[in-house]
Amino acid sequence: MCELLGMSANVPTDICFSFKGLRERGGRTGPHRDGWGVAFYQNKGVCTFKDPMPSHESEVARLVSDYPIKSTAVVAHIRQANRGRVGLENTHPFSRELWGRYWTYAHNGQLKDHQSLPTARFTPVGTTDSERAFCFLLSELDKHYPTKPKSRRQAFSFIRKKADILRQMGVFNMLLSDGEYLLAYCTTKLHWITRRAPFGIARLSDIDVDIDFTRETTPNDVVTVIATEPLTCNEQWHKMSPGQWQLFYRGEAIGPNKE
Amino acid sequence: MCELLGMSANVPTDICFSFKGLRERGGRTGPHRDGWGVAFYQNKGVCTFKDPMPSHESEVARLVSDYPIKSTAVVAHIRQANRGRVGLENTHPFSRELWGRYWTYAHNGQLKDHQSLPTARFTPVGTTDSERAFCFLLSELDKHYPTKPKSRRQAFSFIRKKADILRQMGVFNMLLSDGEYLLAYCTTKLHWITRRAPFGIARLSDIDVDIDFTRETTPNDVVTVIATEPLTCNEQWHKMSPGQWQLFYRGEAIGPNKE
């Protein structure tokens, strides 16, 4: 299996602290040794660092955990391969352009019969069930909305319905973002936390690192972090239930069930 | 204007030496301060590092120039903005998927009336003339070949013909790769060099750095480097003429004019 990490924020925020925790699970505190990746959005642009090496050993992952890249939406993943060989083409997150926006996605789980999933305009490059599911979702979206819909929130609602089909095929925990919205979809395991004023001190579970968010933030900052397993040991994370989904926009949970 | 750097190799090769030279031109020996990017292919996978900061000052660029990422095809760019604000969405290289392959592109030049270029399936995310020209090329390719052509070389020949249209609109020096082939198209300035046994010592023009390629290579390695301006001061680079193009495959120039 794999682990997911996402961030949605109302101001450009770095993910060094959370990524530091996740990185340990890629070969040290966790078995996810088969690659890692992280996509950072800045406005409509996106930059994705990825590497088929274990994140714990990767020099690039070290840079990402130390060097503050400010972003309002992040999708990250560490991989334990089940379908598809270990290689860059099978390393999450995956991105495609639709309607003049980059869509970025990462998946935790395993799907049966994924070869039967129809894809149209979007073709997988690698051989994972994950990328095929992503191409399926975007192809369905493109078929349903040949031109950009007025409401992107509606588009995410459509994606969520199509994810219900994938859920029937196995384990499908997913993060998907267009740089503004971030959709978290859970079939087995996914947690999230929204941090806002008054901020406090957080402590990572996987490595002896603390952060005092009062020093890193302004009173108006709203930052949500989503992860397969909670990354901190002294905060209360929301645990998502099987079949539950949550849409985030600029740091805030906006549906279906607000905090 | 901007500067381009590309590499095509028959074995996974790092680009640290050449990138070290290019990086200096992004703020120190050259005026290209408005961002930089580099895409590395490994088999069909691609990873693109990009940053709207000057490469000379970028921590990520420092990593890329020091840390050997092995690749058989590379497309890199340093930017001096003319059309489109400085920002990640306008930072080259740009990538899109077509026929289950990632296509990556970078442009040096400026195009008049680029808004008039038709794009179909591929939509620009940013606001540069460069990205629009890329979306035009891929949209034309997709229209002409609704399914993957048997010969990708033929596809590159088609792209070259469409590039002749862009050439009428201004300055259009370009690198475009699908991870196996790399097309270099010149309207004003582009140079290339193929290194093969017997290898020698090369010296960068922009910074006091030498490399002894005999220590870094095996006798069968063939590596071509393409750059706006020669990166070394003690080697003979091929100078391309206006309107000339050259296709590379696994390190070798394969047309129209071989070495």
From TrEMBL, chains A, B:
Matching Pfam families: GATase_4
Residue ranges annotated for the Glutamine amidotransferase type-2 domain, each copy included: 2-259
SUPFAM superfamilies in the cross-refs: N-terminal nucleophile aminohydrolases (Ntn hydrolases)
Superkingdom field: Bacteria
Gene3D superfamilies, per database record: Glutamine Phosphoribosylpyrophosphate, subunit 1, domain 1
Transmembrane helix found in the keyword field: no
Keywords associated with the record: Glutamine amidotransferase
PROSITE patterns linked to this entry: GATASE_TYPE_2
CDD domains, per the entry: YafJ (cd01908)
Entry annotated with the keyword Protease: no
InterPro entries from the UniProt entry: EgtC-like (IPR026869), GATase_2_dom (IPR017932), Ntn_hydrolases_N (IPR029055)
PANTHER family recorded: GLUTAMINE AMIDOTRANSFERASE (PTHR42824), GLUTAMINE AMIDOTRANSFERASE YAFJ-RELATED (PTHR42824:SF1)
Protein name: Class II glutamine amidotransferase
Lineage, broadest ranks: Bacteria, Pseudomonadati, Pseudomonadota, Gammaproteobacteria, Alteromonadales
